[in-house]
Amino acid sequence: MQKMTPVSSLKANGGLSLGSEISVRNVSKSYGAEQFGKQVIRNCSFTLERGKLTVMIGPSGCGKSTLIRLLAGFERPSSGSISVDGKPMTGPGVDRLVVFQETALFPWMTAYDNIMYGPRARGQDTPEMRDLAETLLQKVGLSAFRKKYPSQLSGGMQRRAELARAMINEPQVMILDEPFRGLDAMTKRLMQEYYANLYSEFQRTTFFVTTDIDEAIYLADRILIMTNIPTEVRASIDVNLPRPRNVENITESDEANAIKMQALGLLHEEAMKSFVRGSKAAADFIEAYSKRVNKE
């Protein structure tokens, strides 16, 4: 288990990129007995660079959530290796924290108590941690709701509280599994802006899974396009748009639109593959579509 970074470095990183680097090499994951097993991930390799925000996007059901469980250490790969800062990953650790799709706030705790749960569980209910909890409440816009219970918070507020609860534990890597899924369009956009601001300030290594290409381009330093199941990296696209980013400016950006068209072409091919198994006509369509996209 890695040593946790001092609280002072979470409050202000001085412009330095912080966090760990995770290396995934030739990872495969199957479930079930070998003869009847189902391969979900196949020969997958990529690196989560230190202090960078990597977004993974792929067809529904391709194995993205399985990869999250592997990166978090909840499961082990069938083959291949995952390392953190050059050391083999052996299981879950406080250096990696996951924000899941579903809310995980304790309903009997206030927003403040939910955020303080981790430090208290470790016996670190100190004045410094309490100050940090108040700072995070302020940064996610929940200072006025610190005494409210989850049932009294909107969906967006619950998501912000969960982000603060994760960040107070000072993870070296943040892992987010479609955290804004199910929110209405306006709330989702606000949450994207909140998280983009938090990332710019704390700049922790981040692995963000989504099915929303606009969200991916707005947030990412790099986008990993995944294949259909069994999944592997189809393409890696760098997003060299300056930060801080503005949604309106990105919409009008030629570079952003070029990235979007490239990603959509690849995603369309992979999504169609789930319909083509055993269909010669569909396979011919995919081949023709791929040639057209490549020409463009």
Give a written overview of the molecule.
This protein is α/β, with parallel strands linked by helices. It has a domain at 7-95 and 171-257: Rossmann fold (3-Layer(aba) Sandwich), CATH 3.40.50. The chain is built from ten helices and ten strands. A six-stranded mixed beta sheet has the order 6-7-8-3-9-10, sandwiched between helices. Strands 2-1-4-5 form a four-stranded antiparallel beta sheet, with helices on one face. The protein is globular. 35% of the residues are buried. Mean pLDDT is 86; it is low at 1-9 and 11-17.
Write the layout of secondary structure elements.
Blueprint: H1 7-11, E1 22-31, E2 38-48, E3 53-57, H2 64-72, E4 79-84, E5 87-88, E6 96-99, H3 111-121, H4 127-139, H5 155-167, E7 173-177, H6 185-202, E8 205-210, H7 213-219, E9 222-226, E10 233-238, H8 247-251, H9 254-276, H10 280-295
Parallel strand pairs: 3-8, 3-9, 6-7, 7-8
Antiparallel strand pairs: 1-2, 1-4, 4-5, 9-10
Q: Name the strands of the widest sheet in spatial order.
A: 6-7-8-3-9-10
Query: How is the biggest beta sheet arranged?
Result: 6 strands, mixed
CATH superfamily of the domain at 7-95 and 171-257: P-loop containing nucleotide triphosphate hydrolases
CATH topology of the domain at 7-95 and 171-257: Rossmann fold
Overall average pLDDT? 86
Please state roughly what percent of the residues sit in beta strands, choosing from under 5%, 5-15%, 15-25%, 25-35%, 35-45% or over 45%: 15-25%
Rg (C-alpha, Å): 20 Å
CATH architecture of the domain at 7-95 and 171-257: 3-Layer(aba) Sandwich
- The CA-CA distance between the termini, in Å, is 48 Å
Q: Identify the CATH class of the domain at 7-95 and 171-257.
A: Alpha Beta
Q: Percent range for helical residues? A: 40-55%
Overall structural class, as computed from helix and strand content, comes to alpha/beta
Count of separate DSSP helical elements: 10
